[in-house]
Amino acid sequence: MAKAKMQFFLFQLLEIIAATALVVLGQSSSGDTMIQNSSLVNGQTLKSTGDLFQLGFFSVDDSSAKGYLGIWYYNLTPHEGTVVWIANRNESVNASMASFNLTSEGNLILFEEDKIVWSTGTRSTGLNSAHLQLLDSGNLVLNDSNSILWQSFEHWNSDTHIAGTKYGFDSRTNTSWPQVSWKNSTDPSSGDYIQMIRELHIPDSFTFKGSAKYRRGGLWNGNEFVGLPSMSSSQVESSVRFTFVSNENDTYLMINYTASPTPVLLRSVLCANGTFQSWFLDRGGDGAWQLLWSIPDDDCDMYNRCGRNSVCIWNYYAVNCECLDGFVKIVENGSEAGCQREKPLNCSSNNQFSKVQNVKVPDTENATSRGNMSLDGCKNLCLNDCSCAAYAVIGQSYGCITWTSDLLDLRTFGYGGTDLYVRLAGELDQPSCHMLKNIRSIVCESIKSGHPYSRYGTGLEMHEIRTRLRVRMGPKTETESEAKIGSEAEMKLETEMDPEIERKFETKMESEDETSETEMERETKMGPETKMDTEAQMRPETEMEFETKMEFEIKMKFNQI
């Protein structure tokens, strides 16, 4: 044992002597490659072939006394969000006294004088066959003649993820690839926030602040994490491909470019303040990075903002917390803590389900994937399981998912999201707001919010409703939106309208037409002081008719007529 320890000590001593000699006598590296018996010192860099990334020593506060060895975008100054990987992020060095060495044995070592600060611990199998290369992907790869000895993409512990890196975990090696924020903008050591995929039966993406759940991205639905509907942005969707792998060995998300060379660059950053941002660069543009999206987008993005069994609704200026159908608000320690069932579930009763549209499905800690099946099949499975509190079908990723006990971290989205079916104790006394479709599902949320609207108390002004309708119906231009509202949307409303409400509406419209004719005669006699363009004074007739009809039906549905 003593002999083995002595041999190990002598081996390390020889490496230090050899590496020190490299700094004095060895070659200085250039280009994208380092060979054995070469070194890199402050002021020298490796640069990838396509001038995308560079490796070298940097300091964030312009002081060489606090230096780091890292990789950053070639055309950007090293700082938070542009440095993609750091070898010694938790132990700075005096850059003027540091060197980065590839030894004759094929080991990468970062020295500060004669102290080993960081090392790959690798050993080449061939003689003088090892070489280190910085690729245009941003991956730093150590090869020998037979294999890859080490690569930075497999040892990624950064605040930034780029195409080719993994976000997730490997169950076999107990390795994880999280995102860890900087401590602050001038200190890249590990900060307060960590973003990771939790190793659950249904993996869920979470951001933690310390040990507390801070924000939840949710499970993967085949296109994006359910809590990040902006993730699959149209600005980059043709240039990137999302690959999500989940099996007994590992679970991770990887983004790859669809073309080489890629026309865009993409990076995601977990900032020191906990904000999660995605940036892209159009390489054919002006060279400026543009923000794709930023989370949190509103207060409903914060974990379980409204408590258990409660839906967080963002009304543009404030949070509105609404109990699920069949639940009532509860107060704990003097403050609202969410909601609980008004009546306990009873398997022998005539259980029904309340449909909650466009939501981030609950925390999956108490969820189970039941495999691919139809919506009816999933419903029947839930009905036949007395512990089942809710269900949803998530595309081809997990199929039917069921939840037991309380439902946590629910929020609505203006677009995207998933339909969740919540089990009720018996039938609803009246139609559920959450079950109303199209326009009424938007307005129901508003009426229940309790914010006044001048005539009908809907809580959302009609221009806000029209805006949200445009988002849901999908047209990209204002002209298309108006046409959609004036024809297809109105037709949907007419076909769904109750015949009795339709009759009352027509009677009311005829009465208002007569009143309007009288008003027009009075205005003609008075004469306008100025003459404005008719189109500037009036909105399209189809939109006005649609809005009036929508308002009328809202009033009827809520017994205000």
Radius of gyration from the CA trace?
Answer: 31 Å
- Beta fraction: 25-35%
Please state the second-level CATH architecture of the largest domain.
Orthogonal Prism
Q: How far apart are the first and last residues' alpha carbons, in Å?
A: 92 Å
CATH class descriptor of the largest domain: Mainly Beta
As a percent range, the share of helical residues equals 10-25%
Average pLDDT, rounded to a whole number, is 78
* Shape, principal axes of CA atoms: elongated
Oligomer: single chain
Largest sheet: 8 strands, mixed
**Secondary structure category:** alpha+beta
Describe this structure in words.
- By secondary structure, the chain is an alpha+beta fold.
- The chain has 4 domains: 9-154, Orthogonal Prism (Agglutinin, subunit A); 160-297, no CATH class; 319-435, Hepatocyte Growth Factor; 454-516 and 535-557, no CATH class.
- Helix content is 22%, strand content 33%.
- The chain contains 8 helices and 35 strands.
- The strands form 8 sheets. The protein has an 8-stranded mixed beta sheet with strand order 27-26-34-30-35-32-33-31, with helices on both faces. A 5-stranded mixed beta sheet has the order 1-3-8-9-10, with helices on one face. It has a 4-stranded antiparallel beta sheet with strand order 2-11-12-13, with no helix packed on it.
- Strand 8 and strand 9 form a beta hairpin.
- Helix 5 crosses helix 8.
- It is elongated.
